[in-house]
């Protein structure tokens, strides 16, 4: 099932809120992305930034499970949402 871009952005904002509330994982995201806390506030409405939030989340299945369990959504939603945001097209090399 494909979701809309608006739904993907809303979901990514929920993931960002979950991430901000995760004292162990937030510093990892900030270090990996080069963002700071001011960037989180300033860029939260940018679809490209929200895509990077989902890219980060989907790097580790444990993070996906934890986040989805807290948010009460299916484990497939992060990848579905990522595909709907800029840069989320899956590349097929064959």
Helix content: 55-70%
> Helical segment tally?
6
Main sheet attributes: strand count, strand direction, barrel closure: none
Which class best fits the helix and strand makeup?
mainly alpha
| Mean pLDDT reading | 92
Estimated radius of gyration: 13 Å
Shape call:
globular
Poorly predicted residue ranges:
none
Write down the secondary-structure element order: HHHHHH
How many angstroms separate the termini? 24 Å
- Kindly state the number of beta strands: 0
Strand content: under 5%
Short description:
The chain has helices at 5-20, 26-33, 37-43, 47-57, 61-71, 77-84.
Report on this structure.
The protein has 94 residues and is mainly α. It is 65% helix and 0% strand. It is built from six helices and no strands. The chain has helices at residues 5-20, 26-33, 37-43, 47-57, 61-71, 77-84. Helix 1 (5-20) crosses helix 4, helix 1 (5-20) crosses helix 6 and helix 4 packs antiparallel against helix 6 (77-84). The longest helix has 16 residues, at 5-20. The model has no long low-confidence stretch (mean pLDDT 92).
């Amino acid at each position: 099932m494909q979701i809309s871009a608006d739904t993907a952005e809303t979901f990514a904002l929920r993931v960002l809120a979950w991430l901000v509330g995760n004292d162990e994982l937030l510093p990892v995201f900030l270090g990996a992305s080069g963002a700071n806390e001011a960037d989180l506030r300033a860029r939260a409405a940018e679809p490209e930034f929200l895509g990077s939030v989902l890219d980060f989340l989907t790097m580790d299945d444990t993070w996906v499970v934890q986040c989805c369990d807290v948010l009460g959504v299916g484990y497939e939603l992060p990848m579905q949402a990522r595909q709907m945001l800029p840069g989320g097209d899956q590349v097929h090399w064959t």
